4-diphosphocytidyl-2-C-methyl-D-erythritol kinase (Thiothrix lacustris), 286 residues
Amino acid sequence: MMQTLTLPAPAKLNLFLHITGRRADGYHLLQTLFVFLDFADEITLTVRSDGAIRRPAGADNVPEAEDLTVRAARLLQEVTGCPLGADIQVLKRIPMGGGLGGGSSDAASVLQGLNRLWQCHLDENALAALGLRLGADVPVFVRGHAAWAEGVGEQLTPVVLPNSWYVVIHPKVHVPTAELFSSPHLTRDSPAITLATFHGGAGLNAFQPVVEKRYPEVAEAINWLSRYSTAKLTGSGSCLFAPVSSKQEGEKILKSLPNKWFGFVAEGANISPLHQKLAIMPTLYN
Ligand SMILES: C[C@](O)(CO)[C@H](O)COP(=O)(O)OP(=O)(O)OC[C@H]1O[C@@H](n2ccc(N)nc2=O)[C@H](O)[C@@H]1O
Ligand SMILES: Nc1ncnc2c1ncn2[C@@H]1O[C@H](COP(=O)(O)OP(=O)(O)OP(=O)(O)O)[C@@H](O)[C@H]1O
């Protein structure tokens, strides 16, 4: 039986994000387009026979019990009654709280990985439903296909997007998602758009005007990146991105990035790097 598995947990971008309404429970109805990046955290899972879930290495400042990887493992244990445990090592590369979905992606990789290591045999629908209990962004990472999303982000329609490279910038500012969703200044009644109108140039990030106003550092970074290409916020920020024609063009732009910010170039992926890896694993574990 396989005992250890190392899996990527990729970042995502929201290529646009509109808020179209609000549910009775306060959650917002969205339209968004998710694409994955070939820029990822790395999760190493090792089976424990004593049933304990431990996180020997992981995100700084995130207490073990609150880590989405630990919560994902405990949830899977709870619903399947699996007597096995796991050590979960998380090598963080994705800036935290930046709208790149790192925590959600880590959780999805744990669900997919432990489902195999523990041989729980939950199908993808069951894993996505478990993921949704951990966060609105988890299901898309569980499913692993670029997607048009509606509802709170869980109604996913797979799409194939043209290949693209992106410059991503983290202005080193933490923007709390829940605080932004509660802003009175958010546009909450955007008319619904379609993939065709997105490709025709429609699609903004509803959080962007509010974030630019509250966080001048983010506005400054957006202005800087806009000199080179169309810059937009991803998720609720604070990271921003812009499409570029090649890796080289992206690297050239980053050469003049002010030191105070962090940036990287990454390629968009229709199939998540997690699923690319799962697809080449021995069929016994697929
Ligand atoms: C902004 C996005 O990243 C876009 O992909 C997601 O919608 C946010 O997903 P997430 O970080 O997984 O968010 P969650 O942990 O589920 O929710 C954090 C908080 O944001 C608010 N929230 C979240 C999602 C949503 N559709 N409506 C909301 O109002 C809720 O107050 C919630 O308590
Ligand atoms: N494994 C983890 N990695 C990162 N953050 C985690 C993890 N587990 C819990 N968290 C908590 O989740 C918060 C949000 O982290 P994350 O990196 O997913 O944000 P994000 O990229 O803004 O996500 P989103 O786009 O879903 O809003 C962090 O500030 C942290 O407190």
